[in-house]
Write a structure and sequence with these properties.
CATH superfamily of the largest domain: Metal-dependent hydrolases
Shape: globular
Bound molecules: guanine, zinc ion
Helix content: 25-40%
Largest sheet: 9 strands, parallel
CATH class of the largest domain: Alpha Beta
């Protein structure tokens, strides 16, 4: 067992954060030998129960749940900041050519290690990420996550059409490879597999059908894809499926909308689509920095909450511009203000933070496992320094409420605020 004395941030309910200003976090092994939270609360109340437990004192620091990134692309580590006239030219010009490099384990392993290092530097302790269409890219990332004991979900990208040589896969082979990767990696330690059709234009009907069959055969495996990100993409899907009611309904038709299915973006959708997300339990990964960078549009928070479907925050690196959850939360705030529905909303700091931690964990079916620091949660956490920069020190010192304390960190924060990232280990 080990204890940490610091200010402790955790969630008592949806979007309801608590800051225990002089707190104690006690971590120790569960029945399976994994480090989990044993107790959290005020130092004054807990210290006597845990006398004798080695305690690290971190004055002036905040311990908070590790962030959860619901959608990202590890092969796009070196694609970040590639400008283009929207999604489709960006894919053609930079992304597809770059992803061709991941056919070898050596190259994939090198990028996997750089990618995970960036996640950790930025305080992200759980990620759902795309790999490329090459099984080697999946093996390399899982191996690195396993080495570090990181909770990570990924999958081989399915893309058997409208994609160039070098990344395009073959329908039958892609499904056989997917099943073999599920059997090799899903549920091994903290690793999870996600069936990964890239998006409707890049997958034949046979490939989507096969993906849907695997999804029903392996119900606790995740699904990840993209939906309704960009207007040109939506027009393309309409041409491919003229009889479909909407872009999302194509995924429905192939059995790809269910709980544990995460669709990045979901911008150009209507209320029938929103009701479909809600009734199937599928979720949206809101990727605001990507949407602003590629000029894709604005996720409609008001309509999403009216419909009541699940969503959480994501970086979408490399369409997204940063690994930092602070940057993503700030971009989400801008999107809320600008909004599709007028007037815009002012997302509260606690809401934004929840959407990138415990809320995102809930969307992934990992509530009570990661994203929070309540007893039983895996001990993935960050140590934050609210004085990391002179301006941040000034602003946080003047806070009169928790929201006034969290907001300057969202607005001014970056990797300098993340002093340490701790990953739960198995003993
Ligand atoms: N749609 C299909 N592939 C991609 C991708 O790699 N990034 C984004 N943002 N959208 C996509
Ligand atoms: Zn994406």
């Amino acid at each position: 067992m080990k204890a940490y004395r610091a200010s402790i941030l955790y969630f008592s309910g949806p979007a309801e954060a608590m800051l225990e200003s002089d707190g104690l976090l006690v971590v120790g092994p569960n029945a399976q030998g994994r480090q989990v939270v044993q107790a959290v609360g005020s130092y004054r109340q807990l210290a006597s129960c845990f006398r004798g437990v080695p305690t690290e004192h971190l004055p002036g620091r905040i311990i908070a749940p590790g962030f959860v990134d619901m959608h990202t692309h590890y092969p796009q580590l070196d694609v970040i900041g590639s400008p283009a006239d929207g999604l489709l030219p960006w894919l053609e010009t930079y992304t597809f050519p770059h992803e061709k490099r991941f056919s070898t384990l050596e190259y994939s392993a090198q990028i996997a290690s750089g990618f995970i290092a960036e996640l950790l530097r930025n305080g992200v302790t759980t990620a759902l990420t795309f790999a490329t269409s090459h099984p080697a890219s999946v093996n390399a990332l899982f191996a690195e996550a396993q080495r570090l004991s990181l909770r990570l979900i990924t999958g081989k990208c399915l893309m058997d059409q409208n994609s160039p040589d070098g990344v395009r896969d073959e329908t039958q082979r892609s499904l056989i490879d997917t099943e073999a990767l599920i059997q090799r990696w899903h549920g091994v330690g903290r690793l999870g597999y996600a069936i990964t059709p890239r998006f409707v234009p890049s997958c034949s009907a046979a490939q989507l059908r096969g993906a849907g069959e695997l999804a029903s055969q392996y119900p606790d495996v995740w699904i990840q894809s993209h939906a309704a990100e960009n207007r040109d993409e939506v027009v393309w899907v309409r041409q491919l499926y003229p009889d479909a009611r909407s872009y999302l309904s194509v995924y429905e038709q192939f059995g790809l909308l269910r709980s544990r299915a995460v669709y990045a973006h979901c911008i150009h959708i209507d209320d029938t689509d929103r009701a479909l997300l809600r009734s199937t339990g599928a979720a949206a990964a809101v990727s605001p920095s990507s949407n602003l960078f590629l000029g894709s549009g604005f996720f409609d928070y008001v309509a999403a909450d009216r419909a009541g479907f699940l969503y959480g925050l994501a970086s979408d690196v490399g369409g997204g511009t940063s690994f930092s959850p602070f940057h993503t939360m700030l971009a989400a705030y801008y999107v809320g203000r600008e909004g599709q529905t007028k007037p815009g909303v002012s997302l509260r700091p606690q809401q934004l933070w929840w959407q990138h931690t415990a809320g995102a964990a809930r969307v992934l079916g990992l509530e009570g496992v990661v994203g929070n620091l309540l007893p039983g949660c895996e001990a993935d956490f960050v140590v934050l320094n609210p004085q990391a920069t002179p301006l941040l020190a000034r602003r946080t010192a003047q806070a009169g409420s928790l929201d006034e304390f969290l907001f300057p960190m969202i607005v001014l924060g970056d990797d300098r605020v993340i002093e340490r990232t701790v990953i739960s280990q198995a003993i």
